[in-house]
Amino acid sequence: MDKCQREQNRADCLRGAILTGMTALGIAVMAIATFVSSASALSLLDKIRNGETIRIGYSNDAPWAFPGENKEPLGLQNVIALEVLKKLGVSKVESVVTEWGSLVPGLQAGRFDIITDGMYILPERCRNVLFTEPVASIPTGMAVMKGNPKGLHSYQDVRDKGVTVVTGVGYRAVKNAQEVGIPDEKIMQVAGNVEIVQAIKGGRADAGVGDYLGIKQAISNEDGLEMADPFAQYEKPGYPAFAFRLNESMAVEAFNAQLKDYLGSKEMMKSVSKYGYNKSTLPDGSKTVDLCKR
After folding, report:
1. Which residues, in sequence order, are CB contacts of 113 under 8 Å at separation 6+?
2. Fewer Cβ in 10 A, N or C end of the chain?
3. What is the pTM of this model?
4. Phi/psi at 56 (nearest 5 deg)?
5. In terms of Cα–Cα distance, which of 161, 141, 283 is closest to 217?
6. pLDDT digits (tens, 9 = 90+) for 111-146
């Protein structure tokens, strides 16, 4: 005689059977949800081991990172990133090109796995992403009209002469200009280096400030512009690196291990020299842990 036959109230038995079935179904649903959740939460190293496509995010930011005619990732940061990823066993890479200001939010939202643009290591950024060790040491550069008619060679010159300086949204030049005492209305912020050049050419700004390699690249085909020479450095060089999500410390460690051997090698220098990178732009020994504190 089974349990149902032993029950005095067969209706209770039926209800019990239904509840038992619902409980089993609930457990199954929870198991499926847990599996899906864990699958979607794979670490970057797990994705690499599984042979999955790794997505890199960058803006149109020559010479650091930019898309080619066939949408292939170009630029010195992309060259380095792709080679290091290859050494880690990555065979499939997908590019996500977005605006500079969308890079960190895009990384956090999972739109891509690594930021490969020329993003400087800054304390405020270190609160939102994990940086690798620096891949370069880059001074600041200032672009001006040919002949530098207003004699601009520093942030202080911009301030004292009451002219307008243009730089990129989120660039450290914004903070530098404010600290020197340039009024906010004299600090124009645009999307990137291309827009910086357009602002100077259009007469909306008298000088454009950014990383030396980026600004120099942006004016390379502009006969009416030149680099201010000399330009007084306001602070230490910028240190670009690759950025990962905050929970990817193991991936950063693995990336750094490969980067250490590749950085400055003949193989690397041959690949990035066309973007203006040379021995003078190699990292100067500064460490990310210290740069995140300064």
Report:
1. 44, 47, 54, 55, 56, 57, 107, 244, 245
2. N
3. 0.77
4. -110, 140
5. 141
6. 999 999 999 999 999 999 999 999 999 999 999 999
